[in-house]
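Pasting as-is:
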Amino acid sequence: MIQLIRTNSNNKDFVTLVKKLDQFLAVSDGEDHAFYDQFNKLDTIKHVIVAYLDDKPVGCGAIKQYDGFTVEVKRMFTTIEARGKGIASLILAELEKWAIELSYKRAVLETGIRQVEAIGLYKKNDYKVIENYGQYTGVKDSVCFEKLL
């Protein structure tokens, strides 16, 4: 059974999953990892989803305010053994629902061009490719997306 919980960045399961995400990204991003890592600090993220499969933490995602009507999706991850079960889509849908409850109208996100599975996930969930925004402007290895909520 899959269970989603709403929490924040102090959640120990979220912290553990993010460590696994960072290990994965350090390999897949290669020499670009240090650049991207600077934008992925946990600090105090107030809106975090952790997914559990049979009571085991297997996925996470977060949103943080980007501007007055936009949230940025951050720290999306599903463990290797839990991939292919639709968990990432469930996390993303719950983050979108939470953003709507908080009166946001749009979600944006960035992923790397090497993150083929992530790009597929976002396209499958109706995110559209947009021009790179903010700190990703002009970064050739970034792909940015948005979805109107």
